[in-house]
Amino acid sequence: MIELTAEEELRYNRQIVLKAIDFDGQETLKESTMLIMGLGGLGCAASQYLAVAGIGKLILVDFDTVSLSNLQRQVLHDDSRLAMPKVESANLSLQRLNPHVELEAINQQLDDDALLALLQDVDVVLDCTDNVETRNQLDRCCEQSKTPLISGAAIRMEGQISVFTYEENTPTYRQLSQLFGNAPLSCVETGVLAPMVGIVGSMQALEAIKVRLKIGENLCGRLLLIDGFTMKIREIKIPV
């Protein structure tokens, strides 16, 4: 187990005092590696909370660049980073948030072989993308490598989140997508309210920590549906 430094003990004190985490849990987070696919609205929200929570290494994967329309909701980027690769912009911001976290930025679209090679050393994956093809690829590769996947989505004033652990008799993302179909909706066509991606991304970070530490009850087998317009939350059981 990697021990915490005195500075880290003070930095993470408010987490360490939680009985479910304590020193052992914080040390587990320090030796953990999490992969964040997509550094848009969801990825920006999730990665900043994972960074400040003390995840030892974050692998950032995206192949897009920062544009002006991103700045309404993608909080790690700013006007000075326009046209910069999103992973590089996010890397700079996360370094400032927590210099103790190791960051790896991958500015490319990965094929299955490259993704599977990465997953050999990854404890949890966060799907922060906005397209069906990448979501299906993550589901396929995470199932093969048995790497837990935290899936989130936000559009308009609605959000959803679920967890796939790929343990026996648990659903995959394919079962979820079959419930709603594969209509390629995106915020470009339908819009999205900025706080919605913050809510869902933060919840993804929370579920990633819970899954890694094996604490609480995660969303495996359940889909949480958040209606930001009415502030109502529903839960659907995902069939196996």
UniProtKB/TrEMBL annotation:
Keywords: ATP-binding, Nucleotide-binding, Nucleotidyltransferase, Transferase. Pfam families: ThiF. The keyword Protein biosynthesis does not apply. Residues 12-238 form the THIF-type NAD/FAD binding fold domain. GO terms for biological process: Mo-molybdopterin cofactor biosynthetic process. The keyword ATP-binding applies. SUPFAM superfamilies: Activating enzymes of the ubiquitin-like proteins. Its EC number is 2.7.7.80. It catalyses: [molybdopterin-synthase sulfur-carrier protein]-C-terminal Gly-Gly + ATP + H(+) = [molybdopterin-synthase sulfur-carrier protein]-C-terminal Gly-Gly-AMP + diphosphate. CDD domains: ThiF_MoeB_HesA_family. Belongs to the HesA/MoeB/ThiF family. Homodimer. Forms a stable heterotetrameric complex of 2 MoeB and 2 MoaD during adenylation of MoaD. Catalyzes the adenylation by ATP of the carboxyl group of the C-terminal glycine of sulfur carrier protein MoaD. This is Molybdopterin-synthase adenylyltransferase. It comes from Avibacterium volantium (Pasteurella volantium). The lineage of its organism: Bacteria, Pseudomonadati, Pseudomonadota, Gammaproteobacteria, Pasteurellales. The gene is moeB.
